[in-house]
Amino acid sequence: MRHRIDRTQPIRYEVDVIGRRRSCEHVILYGPPGAGKLTVARALAGGYGMRVVDNHLSVDPALRLFDFGTPEFADVVEQIRVTLLGAAARAGLDVVSTFVYAHLVDDDHLATLISASQDGGAHVTLVQLAPSLDALLLRVGAPSRAATSKITDPALLRRLLIDFDLRTPARSDDLVIDNTALPAAAAAQLIADHVGLVPVDAGRSPDRG
Description:
Elements lengths: L12 H5 L6 E7 L6 H12 L2 E3 L1 H9 L7 H20 L4 E5 L7 H13 L2 E8 L3 H8 L13 H10 L11 E3 L6 H12 L14
Parallel strand pairs: 1-3, 1-4, 2-3, 4-5
Helix pairs in contact: 2-8, 3-4, 4-5, 6-7
């Protein structure tokens, strides 16, 4: 007996057809400006098939409308991040996302991001990159940051580190990596080992297929 397909209804591959939601891994990679978050995230994407949701995917669009730090700016940034993480989790995609976390100040925002991933079925791991102050000051002045909206002034970074606690981990059990002299690929491997990610070249596709 053939079954007719109701094309007016969306096909829910992950839940209705397969009968279960496919699990996935979401890594929230945080640290001060210049910590190397995007570089390590890209190493995770290249080596372990993760999708990258970097800080500036949400910050740059919000800056087109609102000044940095305004309530409207913060709302737009959060909405974009929640939408992307939630959609990725529901699709079963492994994701590494990045942002600058200020201890206590960003706790509610962080909880919202975690919920967006978990509500979609993802397992969430928090990882802090914690290079030395000298390394941070050197990296923010790198030429590669000049054409971006990233912080490029070492003096501004110093002020941010005085005004906000950007060094205390969000949670006591977060994986903390001192990547002062650690290559991005090595940091990515530490994260992958901690989470249990399988390298792409070991037979695992970026779509977990």
